[in-house]
Every structure is written in C-alpha cells, then in structure tokens.
Amino acid sequence: MTRAGVAKRLGKSIATVRRMEGVELHPVLDAGGVWRFREAEVERVTRSTSTSSPRAHRSAALRSLHRSHGFRAERDVDGEDELENAESHAVAAARLVAAERELGAERQHAGHAAQAAQAAQAAQAAEAERARHAHALRNAEQRGRDSAAAERERRAMHETLEFIESLTPRELRRLDPEMLDELTTFLKAGDFE
Q: Which one of 20, 42, 126, 161 is most buried, by most CB atoms within 10 A?
C-alpha cells in the first residue's frame, strides 16, 4: 500500500502519514523505489486511532503525570493552593507536550535512520553484484584470450606438421641439420608463436 493509500485509509494527509513513519508505520522500499506499507500495520493504526484520539492520549498522560507528582485536585478553603495547582498543571502540560514532540522526533529520526541503513545495505548489495559481474566479465575475456592463443598454437602446430609431412624423403635429407633440430625443439617445447 502506498503513502497516498494509507492517507486515504486513515483519513489523514500525506504529510501526517510521513510524520507517522518510523513511529507507528514502518514502510519498506520495494524494487521500484516506492515505499510500501503493510496492510496489517495500517489496519492496526486505523483501529488505534479510531478508538482514541491524540487529545485522549494527552489527557491520560497528564493525569498519570499529576498522580506521579502528587498534584492535588481538591480545592483548598482559601483558594490559594488551587491557583498554585493550576500553574503547576499548566507547566506540566507544557512539559508533556514538549516531551511528546521530542519523543516523536526521536522515533521519526530512528525510523529515518533505519531507512537510511536499509538504503545503504541495498547500495552495498548492488555494488557487490556489480563487482561480481565485472569479475565474471574479466574471467570471460581472459578465457577468450586464452582460447584464441590456444587456437593460434594449434594452427601453427598443424601447419608445421603438414610442412614436415609434405616433404619427400629426399627433401628431408637435404634439410639443414640445424633446421631439423629447431623443428624438433619447436615440436617438443610447444612454443608455436
């Protein structure tokens, strides 16, 4: 499922879906370079966003924070403690919002880091494949050169043997002994170039 499809399914903008990447959604880069989202993950996010809103999450977190810090909800007789609690609540809410933003940014950064690591891994795999192909090409070229050299040697040997066979016994006797030695050495050594 593409980013646009996820946005349509969730009823959110594409920018919102991008912000959810690495936090709630974890897309995978396909062979065509398109980020794809898993259906099951999108369904899970759809269910979680339909059962609770960000405001509900923030309220629950604020209540939890208040309980952990001992804020009082009751009203004092003179009303002064209520004002202090209201200021403390405002400060705590501002801190909570800042912490939520920071946590979201960290999660998003972690998601982007994972995506960058995947891209680097894909680049390394592509480079390894390119190197393997280059090595295979060099080997094929070398085999071709070796094959051509072997063919030249075979032809030279064949021509030399044909020459010797074409000589009559009388012509063989007339050959210079040094030339016979060279031919014999040539045939034994296999140096046909």
A: 20
